[in-house]
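Margin note from the TA: students keep mixing up input and output lines. Inputs are the sequences; the output is the structure of the whole complex. Example:
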Amino acid sequence: MDIADMAKRIAAGERRALARAITLVESGRADHRAQATELLATLGTGREALRIGLSGTPGVGKSTFIESFGKMLTADGKRVAVLAVDPSSARSGGSILGDKTRMDELARDPNAFIRPSPSQTHLGGVARRTREAVALCEAAGFDVVLIETVGVGQSETVVAQMSDLFLLLLAPAGGDELQGVKRGIMEMADLIVINKADGDLKATAVRTQADYAGALRLLRKRAQDPDGYPRAMTVSALENRGLPEAWDALQELAGWRRAHGFWEATRAGQARYWFEETVKAALLAQLETPQARADLAALSQAVAEGTREPTSAARDFVQALGKSAAQSG
Amino acid sequence: MDIADMAKRIAAGERRALARAITLVESGRADHRAQATELLATLGTGREALRIGLSGTPGVGKSTFIESFGKMLTADGKRVAVLAVDPSSARSGGSILGDKTRMDELARDPNAFIRPSPSQTHLGGVARRTREAVALCEAAGFDVVLIETVGVGQSETVVAQMSDLFLLLLAPAGGDELQGVKRGIMEMADLIVINKADGDLKATAVRTQADYAGALRLLRKRAQDPDGYPRAMTVSALENRGLPEAWDALQELAGWRRAHGFWEATRAGQARYWFEETVKAALLAQLETPQARADLAALSQAVAEGTREPTSAARDFVQALGKSAAQSG
């Protein structure tokens, strides 16, 4: 694979090259990993998209929202990528966004690019690959990258670590159900959007919005927010109402943060975080070679049988690993 | 330090040598770590104590229970060690059991050994050190090792990974408060002990015991339990009532598991687990040398400033780390 050529095609915005590159970063093969790393290094960090994290439990109309919101942006001439971090894919290999027919109009839009969640064995692996896919989308010149997730906290945390803005999508609900949103997720949100503010649910949506606006006012003020943020608002993705207002709010917030230094500081902290996570993952990847796996299994068996003491067995294993790396390097 | 001599003294049951050895395993210094590892290797895995994990939130009378329970065992000629895993020590450096006056009679008992939780920066570090301290207590010929914790789930999980039996200590409570115990912790328990079954609280304690007995019956049957387990019972640590019955139950359960192969299987699985955790910790410890810290900080700064791309910076760092290890090794 010609990495320099692939980088050029990505920088020119070729969707097929981008799709192939994302497949490369998602691969677990060592040679693919080396190529993916080379590609990321070649592309560098010059271009920036607006990265929007988006969380919502099943049933809030997330696909409809992304389709309507994405189409509004592409109609305005913007290029929009949609990626996903699916915590369940770490277990089952299944993925949200796997079925592009959920957003079939956006999927056919030449200015949009939709990619399902990578399936990896750990949420950490899913997250690291998605962060790299975001970097590829930025290098490909996308203006907006939406990073979708659905989870119970952990996946929101990792998506927030790769997003400039975090949007929490909710459905209209009675007062008691307000408790269903974990405080930690509320605290991450820059914008809470109550979807389905249409038909019979409209009045409930307005009440829900008021409830969350009240709840947001009770949270501790964050330095990175101007007055009036985080905000709660209503939209109807189905009827295309409220979407321009949501976009305006996101842009206003982004502009304020850029002007006040929070934007750069957040990006710098995130870059540090992913660098350090990637270092740790690379160190632990030494355990994944066939030789290391075999040695680990043999010693693990001796430890289980009580013929080896665990701590000193671990020392011996790590020393042997260092020596074999030195010989092969 | 003469490790062979220290090992001999520990095997002879010398408490001062044991205390010094635990200080050694708790140390973060690389030379101490090497000595501690050598010591653990020398002592091997021959002797076994009954390891009892013990969890209870503040206010359930945990110290009083450990003191009364421990004294009952030492009066019966048994040697008892008490260790602790304190999740808060990972943050604050503070520790439960730090104040031995909480159990002053047991602390003065020549057949008892009490040791506070190590203070480390990660719960994982606290847990690994405590697991090694348990191994030292076993090598020193203790019959029973009590591993105390207080937490909200995570510390119970690590204590369960180094215990043969897990005892959950609770206070008498009304029906509504039953919900306060997380399901995951309930599922870990082999024995639920309602303390303070004395005075005004006696009737409440009996009702609480019945509630938990009912709740335990609703849990999924575990292969490692004979009929009637896990059990809920009442004790009064203050009035020394119910403690022999609790001990009998623990012994009955332990005997059944030994006879049916679950004892060995659990120990084997735990040994594997700690071996693998120690391997991972040893790999990540490569980041803790002064040189590695300095290199990591410099690259992290370049990544934060956007002059380096995170994934390829991580690759370069790990490659350099491997080379410097090869040269120094």
